[in-house]
Amino acid sequence: MNILDTLPVVSTVRRNHGIEHATIHILTAQFRPAALVGHATLDGFNLYGEVATEQVEWAAGEALRRLRSGDSHLVIHPNCGTNFATAGMAAGIAAWIAGMGGGKMSGKLPRIMVASTLALMLAMPLGFSVQEHITTSPHVGGAQVLGVAREKRGGLTRHQVRIG
Predict the structure, then answer these.
(1) CATH number belonging to domain 3-79+136-163
(2) pLDDT in tens, 67-89
(3) Fewest CB atoms less than 10 Å from the CB: which of 1, 53, 83, 149?
(4) Burial class (CB in 10 A: 0-12, 13-18, 19+), 52
(5) CA–CA dist 70, 146 (Å, integer)
(6) How many CB atoms sit inside 10 A of residue 72's CB?
(7) Is 141 exposed, middle or buried (0-12, 13-18, 19+ CB in 10 A)?
(8) For residue 100, what is the DSSP state?
């Protein structure tokens, strides 16, 4: 058991984040929408992008079914913000460490570039691990889709998926 599962609010958002990722995986495999962006919330998640509401509702239900049947890999997504944040932090810390010490910036720049590049190479598997152990959870328990609401503002379509 993950210690984060002992905190109800954190556990709920991690679960919803995992369902969001699984839903996006299923939508992109089945319907190939142009682009989707998701955001987990305490009461579910939001999906931004052009996709039919019925497809979102079906995919969210299918995500729950597949997660319950053991497809836990669906909670990890390569385009998750966790990966981008992990990469940014790793590259920033590596650059900071490589830039420490005396000397001119021109002498430090090659070290900073190499350190940042190595950090970015390690960031992808590290980001996946952070998703797996911290920001998502495949444990959906008795969760169910309570409803999907579509909203269009300007050129942006949002589906609010409520999970209970």
Answers:
(1) 3.30.980
(2) 999 999 999 999 999 999 999 99
(3) 1
(4) middle
(5) 22
(6) 16
(7) exposed
(8) -
